[in-house]
Amino acid sequence: MNLEQLLALLNEKSAALETIKTKALGADATAADATTLEKVLDEIETLQGKIDLAKRAEATQAKLAKPAAAVIEGGHQRPEPQVKSLDGVSKVGLLGVAIAAVKRGHYANPLECLEQEGYGQVAKEFGDYNTKRRRDELFVKSLNAGSAVSGGVLVPVNMEREIIELLRPQTAFLAGNPRRVPMPNGTFVQAGGATGASASYGTELSNAAATEGTFRDIEMVAKELKALVPISNQFLDFSIESARSFVETDLRNAMSEKMDNAAFLGNGLTGNPLGLYNISGIGTRAATNSTTPTIANVDSDLRKAINGMRNLPRGSAKWIMDEVTFGYLQDLRDGNGNPAYPSLQNANPTLKGFPVLRSTNLPNNLGGGGNETYLGLVAFDHVLFGEAMGLELAVSTEAAYYDAGGTVRSAFQRGETLLLAIMRHDFGLRHLRAVQLLTAVKYGG
Prior knowledge:
Helix content: 25-40%
Number of strands: 18
Shape: elongated
Radius of gyration: 29 Å
């Protein structure tokens, strides 16, 4: 039998196991039931052994099928040079695949995997960084087969920053260019103005009114952004490069989607960041209660948001809206059939003089009718993005996980390896007027 047939047979046996187990362990179980259960368990164990052997054989065949690498002095083989330029996400995806390959038993440690697959320079980047971290006693997990697989591997800071830049086009929050604040210890506290002091006129000998501004604390505490990427074991057994490409795409999509949602709508509970739209004291007002508002209605709504930023530098202000709202405003026409907002037709659309950022991560099913969303005007110069050091990767072949539909999946049963990437950051706001939010927006809904 080949590997595919063995896996199919294992899935068949696993599916029948629950019924057989329930019967054999029931109150009215017979000796024959117990014997049947024992037999099935033995068959599954035997199959697992054969599958492991088949995978090792296929992996060995794949390696032998590669062209012989150049031989250097001493008889050692040198991997073919990797000429392709890799960005931060690609390198992290590559490291994740290497860790997973170690977990699959193909290599002794991730750095050896990278070197043998022709990514020696990438291996050096990770190796040098983690060696320094250990020397400074800031990083205690070594890159051996045990801890790198079960615990995690830290990614160099410059590579982590590169990942943030690569997420920017897909993330409205990052595209807004917030102020990035380092949080080396995972926290950041700063006083922010809530209300200002006041002044008054008076006669020469009259007392000046004693007034003072009030302050609020801007406190950020690093929260974990976790991206889970299931990787097919067949990918890992066949090609490190193909697995890297798969992981890179999934990692980028998962992180950008979750970050956008949390940055604007995070509830601040149970380890979640508090999103900008949920910070107490920002400007909030309801939009016109209509799915087909007129130009006058829309102008009135937008003007209220703009006026909410009076006395605040707003050169960095940008509109944040979902695709439905953007489409309605882009298609809105005046009495002569001309676009109501011509600047929305541009490649880099603007509205009332402010750039427009679109997000597919804003909900558009709010309200009693399930057709409401948000439209925000955010001055990003006053928005803080606190970044704690460290992007960590961990791998498992045994864990269970929830898929996108909320169904629990078993990585072992599905023949998958799970890659977990963890970043740590938080969001803050220097001035409350920097966020003006229109709620119950139904434009085109």
